[in-house]
Design goal:
2 domains, Rossmann fold, globular, binds 5'-O-[hydroxy(phenylacetyl)phosphoryl]adenosine, 432 residues, alpha/beta
Length: 432
């Protein structure tokens, strides 16, 4: 089922026409309603008449996270506060948090794009969904909630945490769909097994997982653990929250709803567009938002883009799974390292668990990369020699992918902290 077939299967020229009209209107609106953007457009020397088609977007200035922080809390809103119905906050590690505001029209749009995502994932009206993303300032819980209502699902608004209770609810209510972070899905499966429950025997058929990077190998692991189809959903608070893009059953990239969220993929250094299939930073313009539309927002997420029509019939471009973030990427002795690269390797090795942490430190001026890996119970041995050999093997396999030396430390099952939300994979002691 396609939620909004007319839009999602629109031919590419008609789509470009729609995007062009929307971009022109957006620039006009900025000039009338947003002092911050009026100034930005002026600084970039852009007059309203300069923007005629979507291709002209490249003449427009970028927006970065600092623009939101500098105008904390509400300065970047285009709508007057009396029209703002809901506010969310995304926690940052430094400085002011990022605040986002939605008018009623924006909440309706949000419900729509999530209904489109849920359909893409295979949900049908009448299905029951257990939402285990956090409800509150984080956009995951409420976003999925609004979209599920829009599609006509029955919602169990569990929020994250209280895992035992979640599992009981799952057993008793029998939802078909689970929505949470991939790391929490794994943790729930582990907790289920500990409680004597077989996660493969539950009523679940579909998982809608996102909010953090997860590799293809992690997908396989989750699908095996739960006996479900695991679908990747992407989004960020600044643009709307979850529902910017989502995979369909073909799992060949995430459909980005480009009639409302116009995507570009650029080289983060030169700012030039990269070719389809090449990695770059995803930049998004929210074409139709009212409360807090953003122009060419630099997400810092690294993806590739594919403009070909998908086998499912949707014509929207597809982005790859997020490989990592430009700021999550750690540079170790000059080499770019993404946690998902290490995750892929670990999940291929029998005996390791998908629970890991990466510690970067500096010893005598040299960066040291250490990977803490949990061993499966059955692989843990009293024989130190066997464990050491295993560590060396894991280290070699990671080194083959990263081209730098790593230390691997095997740790006992359940040593690494489990996450109910976004997992913390990297501890960079160099900056402490
Ligand atoms: O994480 C929104 C969301 C909620 C998406 C629930 C999907 C499901 P923020 O807290 O603002 O919003 O974090 C946004 O999380 O820029 C990415 O770096 C990362 N992220 C989100 N979805 C994915 C995904 C929500 N599917 C930031 N794969 C984004 C990889 C993701 N990273």
């Amino acid at each position: 089922m396609i939620f909004n077939k007319e839009i999602e299967c629109l031919d590419v020229e008609a789509l470009a026409q729609l995007q062009s009209e929307r971009l022109c209107r957006l620039v006009d609106d900025f000039n009338q309603k947003s002092p911050v953007y009026r100034q930005k457009l002026q600084d970039a020397g852009v007059a309203s008449g300069d923007i005629r088609t979507i291709k002209d977007i490249r003449k427009l200035p970028f927006t970065i996270k600092e623009d939101l922080r500098d105008n904390y809390p509400f300065g970047i809103f285009s709508a007057p506060m009396k029209d703002v119905r809901e506010i969310h906050v995304s926690s940052g590690t430094t400085g002011n948090p990022t605040v986002v505001g939605y008018t009623q029209e924006d909440i309706d749009l949000w419900a729509d794009v999530i209904a489109r995502s849920l359909c893409c994932a295979g949900a049908m009206p009448g299905d029951m969904i257990q939402i285990a993303y956090g409800y509150g300032l984080f956009t995951g819980g409420l976003g999925l909630h609004y979209g599920s209502l829009r599609l006509g699902l029955t919602v169990i608004p569990c929020s994250s945490g209280q895992t035992k209770r979640q599992l009981k609810i799952m057993q008793d209510f029998k939802p078909r769909i689970l929505a949470c972070t991939p790391s929490y899905a794994l943790y729930m499966a582990e907790a289920a097994r500990e409680a004597g429950m077989d996660p493969r025997e539950t009523s679940l058929q579909i998982g809608i997982f996102g909010a953090e990077p997860w590799s293809v190998a992690m997908r396989r692991e989750i699908e095996k653990s739960w006996g479900i189809s695991a679908i990747d959903i992407y989004g960020l608070s600044e643009i709307i929250g979850p529902g910017v893009a989502c995979e369909c059953g073909h799992k060949d990239g995430l459909h980005i709803y480009s009639d409302v969220f116009y995507p570009e993929v650029i080289d983060p250094v030169t700012h030039k567009p990269v070719d389809p299939g090449q990695r770059g930073e995803l930049v998004i313009t929210s074409l139709t938002k009212i409360g807090m539309p953003l122009l060419r927002y630099r997400t810092r997420d690294i993806v590739t883009i594919n403009h070909e029509t998908c086998a499912c019939g949707r014509t929207s471009p597809r982005i790859s799974k997020v490989l990592g973030r430009t700021d999550d990427m750690i540079v170790v002795r000059g080499i770019n390292v993404f946690p998902t690269q290490i995750e892929e390797v670990l999940l291929k090795i029998e005996g390791t668990q998908p629970h890991y942490q990466i510690i970067v430190s500096r010893e005598k001026g040299l960066d040291v990369l250490e990977v803490l890996v949990e061993l499966q119970e059955s692989f843990f041995s009293d024989e130190v020699k066997r464990l050491q050999e295993f560590e060396v093997r894991v280290a070699k396999e990671i080194e083959a992918v990263l081209s730098i030396g790593v230390k691997v430390r095997l740790v006992e099952p359940k040593t690494i902290e489990r996450s109910e939300g976004k997992a913390k994979r990297i501890i960079d002691k160099r900056s402490l």
